[in-house]
Amino acid sequence: MFKILIVGAGNIGRRHLQALLKLDSPVEICVVDPSPESLRLAKESVGRGARGRVELVRSKELPAGPRDLVVVATASDVRLAAASAAVRDVKPRFLILEKFLFQREKDYADFGRILRRSRTRCWVNCPRRLWPVYRGLRDAFAGSTTMKLSLAGSRVGLGCNGIHIVDLLAFLFGRGPLDLRFEARFLDGRIAPSKRPDFIEFTGMLVGAGGGAAIDLHSFAGHETPEVLTVSSDTANAVVEEAGGLVRLSLSSRGWKWTQSRFKAPYQSELTNAVAADLIRRGDCGLTPYAESASYHLALLKAFNAHLARVQGRAPAACPIT
Predict the structure, then answer these.
(1) How far apart are CA 101 and CA 250, in angstroms?
(2) What is the dihedral of CA 74, 77, 82, 83, to 10 degrees?
(3) Which backbone phi and psi does 95 adopt, to 5 degrees?
């Protein structure tokens, strides 16, 4: 019996639960959250005829007992405490963390030391690496020596979601972990409120580069602009509209002639089961290992903190993005 613990029964935690209940292997799943409303919604999301046994626990503490896999789906302000407790007390073989990982720069090294002292293998859930459309584009860009990725649209969520696109750049380039540096001076001076209380967001443009790759992310404030992602290299160009499920591609090997195709972006509730199945079968998965993802998180966090210091006139103790 493969034993799973989900820490956090919010929206993303429930999507993980729905996916894990699709596993063909026998599973035992425990979901822990201090909110009775979150647990009620989690119970509703399970539905009838679900495979596996599900236990819902209302608590701020993690339940006792060993687990094979722990998924930490809390907000970023409590994720370090939850992830550290999971490694220390539950001692899972596998750990999957949601993003944005942590709000303080020192937390990344602290948690890295905790992992190195344990036998737990950890990945960060940036799931575009698992999407068939991007796995196909990675093959199309194989052999590229330079790459530029741009994303522009309204309410992109640079703080919350920028890490997804940075991780996608590293995945598509396929040249190993990238040593990226970001410049935040083009971000808007007004710090935007997040959709979630007590958290913030950024608008404007964020640019970065390193290791032969470059990226710019532009989140427009005050008007509606559909998100469009473009990727350019010395061997291929691609334009992706995720909301419309459309991808256009041109290759140097085919005279840069454009072709287009349709795709369906998978939901999280269609992905975590495949990740868990890989972990059960071969002890590895296609998500980003912690050390690599932490380096991208830190590069972004340093840029955000520098921007907050310029806007607020003082260095922030933490960057409240989630």
Answers:
(1) 35
(2) 90
(3) -135, 130
Q: Note the pLDDT tens digit of each residue in 262-321.
A: 999 999 999 999 999 999 999 999 999 999 999 999 999 999 999 999 999 999 999 999
Instruction: Answer yes or no: do 207 and 277 share one domain.
Output: no
Is 279 within 8 Å of 69 (Cβ atoms)?
Answer: yes
Which of the pair, 47 or 269, is modelled with greater confidence?
A: 269
Token duo for residue 304 = 């955000």
Structural domain includes residue 172: yes
CATH number at residue 45: 3.40.50.720
End-to-end CA distance of the chain: 33
Within a domain: residue 102? yes
> Total domain count for the chain?
2
pTM: 0.96
Report strand pairing: 288-289 vs 258-262. Answer: unpaired
User: Is residue 61 included in any domain, yes or no?
Assistant: yes
| Domain identity same for 233 and 205 | yes
Of 10, 8, 5, 15, the C-alpha closest to 271 is 15
Distance CA 34, CA 61 (A): 8
At residue 51, the pLDDT reads 64
Residue 223: predicted pLDDT? 77
